[in-house]
Structure formats: C-alpha cells, structure tokens
UniProtKB/TrEMBL annotation:
<comment type="function">
    <text>Essential component of the vacuolar proton pump (V-ATPase), a multimeric enzyme that catalyzes the translocation of protons across the membranes. Required for assembly and activity of the V-ATPase.</text>
</comment>
<comment type="similarity">
    <text>Belongs to the V-ATPase 116 kDa subunit family.</text>
</comment>
<dbReference type="Pfam" id="PF01496">
    <property type="entry name" value="V_ATPase_I"/>
</dbReference>
<keyword id="KW-0406">Ion transport</keyword>
<feature type="transmembrane region" description="Helical">
    <location>
        <begin position="749"/>
        <end position="777"/>
    </location>
</feature>
<keyword id="KW-1133">Transmembrane helix</keyword>
<feature type="transmembrane region" description="Helical">
    <location>
        <begin position="584"/>
        <end position="607"/>
    </location>
</feature>
<protein>
    <recommendedName>
        <fullName>V-type proton ATPase subunit a</fullName>
    </recommendedName>
</protein>
<feature type="transmembrane region" description="Helical">
    <location>
        <begin position="425"/>
        <end position="449"/>
    </location>
</feature>
<feature type="transmembrane region" description="Helical">
    <location>
        <begin position="470"/>
        <end position="487"/>
    </location>
</feature>
<dbReference type="InterPro" id="IPR002490">
    <property type="entry name" value="V-ATPase_116kDa_su"/>
</dbReference>
<keyword id="KW-0472">Membrane</keyword>
<feature type="transmembrane region" description="Helical">
    <location>
        <begin position="639"/>
        <end position="657"/>
    </location>
</feature>
<keyword id="KW-0175">Coiled coil</keyword>
<keyword id="KW-0812">Transmembrane</keyword>
<dbReference type="InterPro" id="IPR026028">
    <property type="entry name" value="V-type_ATPase_116kDa_su_euka"/>
</dbReference>
<feature type="transmembrane region" description="Helical">
    <location>
        <begin position="550"/>
        <end position="572"/>
    </location>
</feature>
Length: 820
C-alpha cells in the first residue's frame, strides 16, 4: 500500500494507524552547494524546513533579489500565456522535459521575446486602428455621398420646375425681382459648413436632440443607418453606428457641434462636397484598405509563429522559474553565516527518510564540486512534530475527510483507518438499494477508467470534487449494493435472488397483499429481508422495527470502537491515568446502559419474545425493583439491571473526581525535574507529545478540574444524544425506500396503466429524471453528509483530539497544485 515517491523505492510499508515517526534535523550546508542541495531535497520532497529568519521582512533576506528576478520572469510568462490564449492557441500538454537553460539565459531570452511581442502588438494595434478608421471613413464617404447626390437631384428637379413655372407666368414684379437678385452683394451670401462622421446608434437620438437644442434649430442634420456592425477604432469593439452629416452656419455653431461630437464619442471624418472628388477619395481609401489588410495579415502570421514557438517551450520555462523561485524562498528560510560561508537549515523529516536525505546531500556536494560536505544532525526537542500519513490515491480521500475535522495529533490513533470501511458502510445503511448502488458504481467506474485523462485536465469545482472522491464513491456504491441486497430492494422492487420466500398462501383466496392468510411453508429466507414482506400492510412496522434496532446496534458498536481507541492512545502514550480514570468508567457507563440495550435487542430477536424494550429501559431507572412480568427476557434480569444502574451511577464521579487529583500528585512528584536527561528521539517525542500544557509551568488545578467536569458532562449527556443520533440511519433509510416506492408506483406504474405509448414514454422520462435528480444526487448528498456527521461528532469525539498540524514538505511535486 505504500505510495512510491521519487527515489523512494526503499520506503517501508505504509502504516495509517499512527503517523510516521518524525525527527528534527539540522543541516549545515556550504554556500557554494546550497542551491543544488535545496534543489535535490525538493526533488526528494521529505523535508519541511523551519523559517530561521522569521524576524526579517522579505526585503531584508539574503535572496530577495533572486526572488524578484523570478517574480519578474513569472510575470512575463503569465503575459505570454495570456497572449497565447487570446490568439486561440493551446499550450501543449504532457510530460515536461527537464529544463536545459539556466536562469540567467532564460531571463535574457524572456526579455527579448517580451520586447518583440510588445512591439508586434503595438504595431498591430496601430495598424488595426488605422484600418478601422479607414473603414469608417469609407462608410461616411458612401453614405454622405448618397445624401449629396439625392440633394443634387432634388435641387435640379426643383430648378427645372421653377424655370418652367416662371416662363409660363409673366408678372410686373418679375423684372424688378430679377434686377434685385442681380444687384445682391455676393459678400452677404450665407456660406454653409458641414461636419460628417459616425455616432453609436444607441446615442443617435440624444445626439440629434442635443445638437438641435444647442444651436436653437439652426442646423440641418441627416443620418443613415449602417446595416453591419462597425469596429470602433478606439475600443476595438463591434458596435451599431449611424453615419451623420450636420450642416451649420457660423463659427459658434461649429464649435458647439464639435464639442457635442466629442462628448458623444462620435468619430468625425472630412468630406468633400464635390462629387468627382468623392469618387476619387473612395478609390484611394479602398486601395489603402487593401494594403493595410495585407500588412495586418502578415503581422498576425508572424505573431502567431512567435507565440507558437513560445508555447512549445512554455511549460519547460514555467517549471524552471517556479522551481527556482521555490528554491530561493527556501534558501531565505535558512540562517546565513557570513563568517563560516555556510547556511544552517532546520526542519522536520520522517525517520525513514534519513538515508535518502544523506544521499541527496552527498550527491549535491559532489555535483557542485564543493570541497566541504554538508553536515546532517538530528536535534532533540520538546516541540510537537507535524503529522504525516503516507497515503495513496485510494486512502487519501478518506484521510481528507478526517483532516477536514482536524489534523491528528502526532502519532495518535488515526480514525482514517476505520473510516475507509465505516464511512461507506454507514452511507449504505441509509442508501440501501442495489439498483441505485449499481448506478453509482457505473458512474464511478467511468471516472476511474478515465482517471489518467481527467487528472491532467482542469475540471470544474463540482466535477473536481467528485473526481477526487471517486474511490470513496466506489466503496459507497459497493456497500450500497450489499445493503440493498439485505433490504431486498431494487428500485423499491423485491426479488427472490437467494431462494424462494419462506411464506406461502394458506389457500387460493389468499390473494390480497397481506400477511394474514400466509403461513411459513419453507425454511427462513437465507439472506436479507424475505420478499413476502414487501407490499404488505405489515411491511412498514416490520422494517421500522428492524432498521431502528439495527441503527442502535451499529451506533453502540461504533461508539465502543471510539472508546477502545482512546484506550489504545492511552497505552501508546503510557498514560495510565487515562486508562483507569477515563477508559474504564466510560466503557462501564456506555455499556451499562446502551450496551445492555443492544444485548436485549439481540436476545429478543433470537428468542422471538414480545417484550417491550421501551418499558424495560424506562423502568430500569424509575422502578428497578419492580417485577418485569412478560418483559423478562432472561433469568436474573432484574438483578443484572440493578447492578448495571449502580455501576453507571458510580462511573460518573469516577470520571470526574480522581483524574484532576492524580494529575496534581504527578505534577508535584515531577516538580523540579524539568531538566532530566532526554531519552532517544522517538521515545522522547512520544512522551512529550502526550503531555498537556499543565505539564510545563504552573499547575492550575481549578482549570484542570473544570476541564474534566466539562468532559464528564459531555460524555454522560453525549452517550444518550449520540445513541439517539444514530437513529438517523433508520430515518434516512426509510425515507429513501419510501421515495423510491412513490416514484415507482405513482409515476411508472401510473403511466403504464393508461395504455398509451406517449404517456408511458413521458412517465419513463419523469421516472428517470426523478430517480437521478432526487435519489441519486440529492439523497446521495444527504446520506453523505449524515455519515460525515456521525463520524465527526459521534465517533471521533470519543478519542480524537485533532489538534496537530500537517507535514508540508518542500517538494517540487506540489508545485503543479499551487497557484502563482
């Protein structure tokens, strides 16, 4: 089961029950081989370095300059990745070869590539803006030209009409008017100016209204809709626009219109009223557009080739930069001694990794041509070591479930070992249906088959969570199939899989769905619930009684396991006080009440007695000397109950009073011997890890007594509430079974009864969606959360302290999981 690490083929077998024995090591590394040493230790990934420069800010540390260099290179790589994604290219995936460039060469190369890419982008942006401006200019020439052409045609038609009407009518005033027109001063004629351009269509109405109000209506404005989207030269976004032409008189009106155009983001372009010059301008703009298009396309091809070449080496460069940055971060945690030209490192490592670390130090000394080798020391300390469990892809998800509650204290019993079995089993008790279990199994097998593909892809939050727990779901589905076979439910339907039912009809009239009229004709059904119970009036009372009693048995068994593990912890840490003042009274109290109830349940099942267990347990306290009558299940039951009640009452002060006084005596006995010689490393860590805070400094008796009082009250009340909490197994199992029956009977059978193909198809679709959405998704999540609560609260609070901290080694294998 041991998970192999790089170069770690000699690792001992994995032991999940206790965390790995740890040691605090000190490394004295020559400065010339420090970088290579940290590099090799990062590849090994079995040393958690301590920060020996915690009092220094990041800018005061020795390698702050190198970290800034790495940060700048990381910024350039992020810039390249952003440019590659914008260009629609994809970074090649797969195994990354070892980097061949050193950091200095890579820094120069990245700087040159960034400068080239920035220049290409700037030129491309400038050309694209010019191109978009020319496109808009061409639209203005076309649309505004249409205005002038239509106006000229209209003016010519009016002039012809006016000339024909004047020739037909002779008037006395005609010569006078004609003379007046001829003597008009040309300098007094009004010269109209024009401004043309494009304005966003959504602003066109407000634009026209503002111009009209600002000039008091002394303008003439025409707009034309551009059918296709136009790329705005400034923003680069495609927007809907209108071409406008404004005719005005006077310099003041011109200035107002220019300011309004600027406020509305209207792009202005020059326009010549001469029709021949308009055609010439359109021809020139079209030619320039073709030239710009060719230039832009060539630039895009060159940019794409550059990005493609960057993308081929991106992962290699990114890995090198991230490795170097992590190395320098680690070097900054080391104490630098200028006079001795060496670095001093301290950190935690598993004891089994001693040989591998020493080999890495020797290899770094040889490869760096250092004259002095690194020195490896094991330090003795009273500091609590980190917790390290070597897990694999199957056990890691279960360990994460435990760690989400709290990381185990150093070498205390790990609930993860038992969670591998008990968690999916408790889930399956609530989810028992072998049809639904098969559906979960198929889904999980699909994830496991495509494991290699999904592990290298970026998944969504929900998909990533599901994929990470694929082996948890696999065991949940297998246990659900098992409990479903016990419940004899396949999408709420029973099957005679293990033989024929033990019951048969008394006569031919026994056709109604009831056990009345059924007789036991054969041996008991060999495995699980007899299919004859399903569909009868007695089914619900029978299953309620079965599942409720089964929930109590499972709960008491798991709580006893928790208390036994507290005994294992006390033995392991050599704490005899916890054995006699905590384990023994807790076992007596829990089993004197609920262990006894579990035995009564088994006896009742075995004997087929009709005794009322509610009555027995209530009057065990209210009337212990009363006659049991028909509720007596075995001889001497009354005496046994009196003894158990007395033992349960005695165990409460037993838990509360002796332990604080014994701790006080122990503290007084060892007072003044704080500096006794240390044992060997592993033994001293075990002893010191188990000692509480009162073991050092002043002993606060009142604090210890209050703590023990809280623990006693919590255990006594928790014994009742925790046992009742396990009844959720019965409740959720019943809810799942009833929901499954409702979907089958009220959807599928109802649709079948209409004898209509369309209704049947609709019913099947509704049944599938209801089964998947409610039973396979919501019920799975509900049962998962309830199983989680039973482990965290009811099971782990009996023995698990969970106040440790995780072992976080310096490892390059973890770089892929970290964000920049």
């Amino acid at each position: 089961m041991a998970e192999r690490r790089g170069g770690g083929g000699c690792c001992p077998p994995m032991d999940l029950m206790r965390s790995e024995p740890m040691q605090l090591v000190q490394l004295i590394i020559p400065a010339e081989s420090a970088h290579l040493t940290v590099d090799y230790l990062g590849e090994l990934g079995l040393v958690q370095f301590k920060d020996l420069n915690a009092e220094k800010s990041p800018f005061q540390r020795t390698y702050a300059t190198q970290i800034r260099r790495c940060g700048e290179m990381a910024r350039k790589l992020r810039f390249f990745r952003d440019q590659i994604s914008r260009a629609g290219l994809s970074l090649p995936t797969g195994s990354v070869s070892e980097a061949v460039l050193n950091l200095d060469d890579l820094e120069i190369k990245l700087g040159e590539l960034e400068a080239e890419l920035v220049e290409i982008n700037a030129n491309s942006e400038k050309l694209q803006r010019s191109y978009n401006e020319l496109v808009e200019y061409k639209l203005v020439l076309q649309k505004a030209g249409e205005f002038f052409q239509s106006a000229q045609r209209s003016a010519e038609a009016q002039q012809r009409e006016y000339a024909s009407s004047q020739s037909a009518e002779e008037s006395l005033e005609t010569p006078l008017l004609a003379d007046q027109e001829t003597v008009t001063d040309p300098s007094k004629q009004v010269k109209l100016g024009s401004i043309s351009g494009l304005v966003p269509r959504e602003k066109s109405m407000a634009f026209e209204r503002i111009i009209f109000r600002a000039t008091r209506g002394n303008v003439f404005l025409r707009q034309a809709v551009v059918e296709e989207l136009v790329t705005d030269p400034l923003s680069g976004e495609k927007v809907e626009k209108n071409v406008f032409v404004v005719f005005f008189s006077g310099e003041r009106a011109k200035n107002k219109i220019l300011k309004i155009c600027e406020a509305f983001g209207a792009n202005r372009y020059p326009f010549n009223e001469d029709l021949s010059k308009q055609a010439q301008a359109i021809t020139e703009v079209s030619g320039r557009l073709l030239e710009l298009k060719t230039t832009i396309d060539a630039g895009l091809v060159h940019r794409g080739n550059l990005l493609q070449s960057i993308g081929e080496q991106f992962e290699q460069w990114n890995l090198l930069v991230r490795r170097e940055k992590s190395i320098y971060h680690t070097l900054n945690m080391l104490s630098f001694d200028v006079t001795k030209k060496c670095l001093v490192a301290e950190g935690w490592s598993p004891i089994f990794a001693t040989k591998q670390i020493q080999d890495a130090l020797q290899r770094a000394t040889y490869d760096s041509n250092s004259q002095v080798g690194a020195i490896f020391w094991v330090l003795h300390t009273r500091e609590a070591p980190p917790t390290y469990f070597r897990t694999n892809k199957v056990t890691s998800a279960f360990q994460e479930i435990v760690d989400a509650y709290g990381v185990a204290k150093y070498q205390e019993a790990n609930p993860g070992v038992f969670t591998i079995v008990t968690f999916p089993f408790l889930f399956a008790v609530m989810f028992g249906d072998w049809g639904h279990g098969i559906c979960l199994l198929v889904t999980t097998l699909f994830l496991i088959i495509r494991e290699r593909k999904y592990s290298s892809e970026k998944l969504g939050d929900i998909m990533e969570m599901t994929f990470g727990g694929r082996y948890v779901i696999l065991l949940m589905s297998l246990f659900s199939i098992y409990t479903g076979l016990i419940y004899n439910e396949f999408f709420s339907l029973p099957f005679e899989l293990f033989g024929r039912s033990a019951y048969a009809c008394r006569d031919a009239s026994c056709s109604e769905a009831t056990t009345v009229g059924l007789i036991k004709a054969r041996d008991t059904y060999p495995f699980g619930v007899d299919p004859a119970w399903h569909g009868t009036r007695s089914e619900l009372p029978f299953l309620n009684s079965l599942k409720m009693k089964m929930s109590i048995l499972i709960g008491v068994a798991q709580m006893n396991l928790g208390i036994i593990l507290s005994f294992c912890n006390a033995l392991f840490f050599r704490n005899s006080i916890n054995v006699w003042c905590q384990f023994v009274p807790e076992m007596i109290f829990l089993n004197g009440l609920f262990g006894y109830l579990s035995i009564l349940i088994i006896i009742k099942w075995w004997t087929g007695s009709q005794a009322d267990l509610y009555h027995v347990m209530i009057y065990m306290f209210l009337g212990p000397t009363d006659d049991l009558g028909e509720n007596q299940l075995f001889p001497g039951q009354k005496t046994t109950q009196i003894v158990l009640v007395l033992l349960a009452l005695i165990s409460v002060p037993w838990m509360l009073i002796p332990k604080p006084f014994l701790l006080k005596l122990e503290h007084d006995r060892h007072h003044g011997h704080s500096y006794a010689p240390l044992q060997d490393t592993e033994e001293s860590l075990l002893v010191e890890t188990n000692q509480d805070s009162h073991g050092h400094g002043e002993f606060e008796f009142s604090e210890i007594f209050v703590h023990q009082l809280i623990h006693t009250i919590e255990f006594v009340l928790g014994a009742v509430s925790n046992t009742a909490s396990y009844l959720r197994l019965w409740a959720l199992s019943l809810a799942h079974s009833e929901l499954s029956s409702v979907f089958y009977e009220k959807v599928l059978l109802l649709a079948w009864g209409f004898n209509n193909v369309i209704i049947l198809i609709v019913g099947i679709i509704v049944f599938i969606f209801a089964t998947v959405g409610v039973l396979l998704v919501m019920e799975t999540l509900s049962a998962f959360l309830h199983a989680l609560r039973l482990h965290w609260v009811e099971f782990q609070n009996k023995f698990y302290e969970g106040d440790g901290y995780k072992f976080h080694p310096f490892s390059f294998a973890l770089l892929n999981d970290e964000e920049d």
